[in-house]
Design brief:
alpha+beta; four-stranded antiparallel β-sheet; 4 helices; flat
Length: 127
């Protein structure tokens, strides 16, 4: 192989290795997403049935339940009087796919019959 062929091969190989490395770094830097919810249950019996379906749907979609119905302990200011739920998702895209799904849309309608809820999503720290 002549020197131009060797240099060309080195350039192509370097470019390929660099592209693979960048893709791996990008995949590693995806920040987890957390959903934090406050839930004021108005119908305990109905809510229990809803909660079982909701938790199963979160797990099936790849979410991880971190807090289910936790009672807040005041540290600074007044804590919410509602129950707290927190779940984690691998990415904003994964969470949005679950949240915007027809199944989840129907479950939110069911939830509204048994509880008043407030929730928000926040990105965590990439590691």
């Amino acid at each position: 192989m002549n020197k131009y062929g060797t240099v060309g091969l080195a350039i192509v190989s370097g470019f390929t290795l660099g592209a693979v490395a960048v893709e791996n770094l990008r995949a590693q830097s995806t920040a987890p997403v957390f959903i934090v919810g406050e839930i004021e249950v108005t119908d305990q019996a109905g809510y229990r049935e809803f909660a079982a379906k909701s938790q199963a749907g979160i797990r099936a979609a790849g979410g991880q339940l971190l807090v289910i119905g936790g009672s807040p302990i005041p540290l600074i200011g007044e804590p919410p009087k509602a129950r707290i739920v927190i779940h984690q998702w691998q990415s904003m895209d994964q969470m949005r796919k679950w949240f915007d799904s027809p199944e989840q849309t129907e479950l939110r309608k069911e939830q509204a019959r048994y509880a008043k809820a407030r929730a928000f999503a926040v990105e965590g720290i990439s590691r």
